[in-house]
Give the backbone structure.
Amino acid sequence: GTAVTTINADMSLGAVEETITVTGETPLVNVQSTTRQAVMDQEIVSAIPSSRTPFTVGVLIPGVSRGAFMSQDVGGSTVQTVASLEANGGRTADQRMMVNGVALSSMIAGGWGRGAGPNATGTQEFAIDVSAVDAQAATGGVRVNFIPRTGGNRYSGTIFGSFAVKEFASDNYTGSDVQAQGLTTPPTIKANGDFNPGFGGPIKRDKLWFFLSGRYLYAENYVAGMFYNQNVNNPNRFDYVSSGEQAFIHQDQQIFQVNTTWQATARNRFGVTFDQESFCGCTAGVSATTAPEAGNDSRFPLQRFITADWTSPMTNRLLLEASAIHRVERWGAMHLQTGKGGNVDHIEPGITSVVDNPSAATGAMLTYRSAPSFNNSWNWNIHYRAAVSYITGSHQFKFGFNNAYGHHENTTYTDPTTPYSFSFANGVPTQLTYRITPRTVAVNVDRDLGFFAQDRWSVGRLTLSGGIRFDQFKNSFPPQSIAPTALAPNLNVRYDTIQNLNWKDVTPKLGATYDLFGTGRTALKVTLNKYLAGLGTTGSLWDPPNPINRLVTQTTRPWNDSFYPAGDPRRQNFKPDCDLLNYQPNGECGVLQNAAVFGTVTPGTTYDPDLLV
């Protein structure tokens, strides 16, 4: 991390005529660095009753709050595979996750990182920079640096375990206002647990060490006000009927991690970390207005990263370091396929999703029978960096660079037999929603490059620091195509490579600290830094220009299930009795909205003409 550490050493005595005893005190606050940092070591992480991630302990830092996609964890009640921290009004996209200083980002949603993260037992400490982040990073959000645990010259191990069941937790539901206002059941834990062993030691004493760790973490929580549908997978029933069994969400994560360290020479040290993970939120997306069968399996079936790092103290003042990481990730809100979340393990083909919007007097909108659509994503990226540091007692100078390449693709899909969904009004069919599926969008980060230099001088009680950073971000859309689909049989388009962003920025960093009383207990700090927005593979600057996203991929048409006269078997049979590929009014179906452009570029949108093929 960026902390200033004081190391006490004992000097051996030679032939002397007198003994001189020197004493001193370590400063209680950092009186040199303006970066505000908290280091969560093994002792702290193990003592706090949580799911033991940098996010669940990071929110305990004053001024830090949980960001987007992060649920509140109490005593390990959630398995947080997608999480973020925010501080000082910062944005989620500005967070950066690192392993030994090299970015762990999947580049999703501005590059803040999601999914994989070293497990608690396999990590020596979490170094969390909260504010005044230095020139080594382009963004100014929270920076989380994982320091892997290394083995030593003796074999040792550790085992952490915890569990809880429903009876371990109390609630204030009975007699509460929410019960009086109609909440039928509260959200409570069903069960959760954590098993996290680790073992390490020497492969060759003083030369080669290893540390091996694994983790199984799970959590099950009841969903407030939602019950299983007793008509699930019944093709002849289009109504939701509660079974009386409260729905719950299951989450579990498996992690295997091994770290090896090689002291090749006295001045050359190498490290390699291999981490393989999987996660399943099964079933996810369930709420008081979404039935379990309309949820999805929030699955990360593959998360893997491999890091390699090298450090070399060339002299007692000059340090060279370099590291790289390769990461792959498969994830998505996928179709039900695991059966871990209660009585729903799949949806039979042909079961159409229903969104019922009753009147205000009868309740809230409800989605049931099936989810309208799903997605399956793939990410591949590589990050690398190198730096040189020159350090004396009063002077610290560092310069280096970082770069990254990434590829992301996301496929939206539905049940092939029903690429549409139904809308009801209090149980009466009113509308069909058409979707073009499957479709895949892809984007490349061609370059995420940065060069930096920073310097820090201490003179008496005053420390001055300054830095400058140059960044270039470049992305593009690789060749993409979309073939004819069930509801758009004439669609068949292809796009060649399209260049998108190519931005360059220079950003300064300035700071000063002053030890007010010279005691190391009170410091005055001031900073003036400029930071860049977090950029990655998805977001408002690259999703809209993507040619596949410019297509009209979803539209609606009216549906009158009472169109045919009484006695006609087609009347009120909950089936759209019309020619779905005839976009003009026919049978029970009205005109398809945006029929002229369904599957073509959205009307009225404007983009840079140079981006159009």
In short: The two ends are 46 Å apart (CA to CA). The mean pLDDT is 87. Helices lie at 42-47, 54-58, 177-180. The longest strand covers residues 242-265.
